[in-house]
Design goal:
By secondary structure, the chain is α/β, with parallel strands linked by helices. Helix content is 46%, strand content 12%. It is built from 15 helices and eleven strands. The strands form three sheets. Strands 2-8-7-6-5-3-4 form a seven-stranded mixed β-sheet, with helices on both faces. It has a two-stranded parallel sheet with strand order 1-10. The protein is globular, with a radius of gyration of 22 Å.
């Protein structure tokens, strides 16, 4: 049987991560995977999360099954955090999922059930897993909003492109901190999108993975809440990986807003049935942590303060990189990066340039030019800027050449 399996395509991100792991050069810099790292290069456990874990361990709670919707208290606090008002949460239901990825897949299955033949529109470029998840659910995919020469992805062509979206279609929008470009629509563009959705009849499908790491938690949720106020139906996939640091605990939820409670009951059952066939029930630990943090005023305040520290560090990293690039003669590149926000930035480099960065300077980013701004130790930013400048041709070298061979 296995001999009949054709060679499947490898995951490009994890291939790069494996290549980095085999690179012995001391100056190597891993900017591939989307994880937050502190100034030492470590991915810390947030203090509020650690305290919540201690409390949970002391309670010695049962490991009994929670049910197909997961932790219902978690679903309740997530609805409150994301939607903000009782008027919005009254129109919504949520089920816990296996991180944001699981939420995307469950909601994609819901689209396939409720809108047969629907096309789902995604941004170009998009998060690398959007298209595979949607296609695995049997959905057709089209793209919108190619980046313009000024790097304003999602603010120029998005409206023109989405005028072609039909009444049976769904539009996948990243709620903030666009991955991979770091460029979000202006709020005026978000309002225009809401008006277009209302007149054209397509349903917004918002992916929230980085809220709190762009302009602040409330600001990052503003566009999502506005869409909820103005449209009768909406899908939201939420991840707790980044803003709670729960990467390996795989914690997320799928939220659906609808016009009636009966419709929402049917939605919840449909999501439960989809979960049953994929993974049955989501893991409890991360959801219990988030619930403990958000239900306790002291822990919630501590979490928000630490999230703000993380956001400020990401912002400072980007500003520092912009300043160093500008000083090295990369003014155009610096100007593009200065417009971006969130964990990721898109360098104006082609795959050959990114390969040169990797081979010559041990700086690892994706082939598309995406780098993880949140993963740069502050003292390594000058080296990163020198490498980028060398690849761009504004300086001759980026420090002393490595004595260790680059991996093959």
């Amino acid at each position: 049987m296995l001999e009949l399996l054709a060679p499947p395509p490898a995951d490009p991100l994890w291939d790069l991560a494996a290549e980095f792991a085999g690179d012995t050069r001391p100056e190597r810099l891993n900017l591939v995977l989307g994880v937050y790292r502190d100034h030492t290069g470590a991915t810390p456990v947030m203090s509020a999360v650690r305290e919540a874990e201690i409390r949970l361990a002391e309670r010695s709670a049962s490991k009994e099954y929670r049910g197909l919707s997961g932790n219902t208290a978690f679903n309740r606090v997530m609805l409150s955090m994301v939607l903000g008002s009782e008027a919005r949460t009254a129109r919504a239901t949520a089920v816990q999922t296996v991180a944001g990825t699981g939420a995307l897949r469950l909601l994609a299955d819901l689209v396939r059930q409720t809108r047969p033949g629907a096309t789902v529109w995604i941004s170009d470029p998009a998060y690398v897993n959007h298209r595979p998840i949607l296609q695995a659910a049997g959905l057709k995919v089209r793209t919108y909003g190619s980046p313009d020469p000024e790097g304003l992805s999602g603010t120029g062509g998005i409206l023109d492109d989405l005028r072609a979206a039909g009444r049976n279609d769904v539009v996948l929008l990243q709620g903030c901190c666009h991955n991979p470009t770091g460029v979000d629509p202006s709020f005026e563009t978000w309002e225009a999108l809401a008006e277009l959705a209302a007149t054209s009849g397509w349903v917004p499908f918002v992916d929230l993975a980085y809220h709190g790491l762009g302009d602040g938690l409330e600001a990052d949720l503003r566009a999502t809440r506005m869409l909820a106020d103005r449209l009768p139906e909406m899908l939201i996939a939420v991840s707790c990986s980044k803003n709670f640091g729960l990467y390996s605990d795989r914690t997320g939820c799928a939220i659906v807003l609808g016009p009636t409670r009966q419709a929402l009951r049917h939605v919840e059952t449909a999501l439960q049935n989809a979960a049953r066939t994929l993974y049955s029930m989501p893991p409890e630990h991360g959801a219990a942590i988030v619930t403990t943090v958000l239900e306790d005023e002291v822990l919630r305040t501590a979490w928000r303060a630490e999230l703000e520290v993380m956001r400020n560090r990401i912002t400072a990293n980007r500003s520092d990189l912009v300043g160093h690039l500008d000083a090295l003669g990369c003014g155009a590149e610096a100007k593009l990066l200065a417009r971006q926000k969130g964990m990721f930035s898109m360098l104006p480099l082609v795959p050959d340039d990114m390969r040169r960065l990797r081979r010559r300077f041990a700086i690892y980013g994706t082939a598309s030019g995406r780098i993880n701004i949140a993963g740069i130790p502050a003292h390594r930013i000058p080296y990163l800027a020198q490498g980028i400048a060398a690849v761009c041709g504004t300086v001759d070298t980026a420090g002393a050449p490595s004595t260790a061979p680059a991996p093959h």
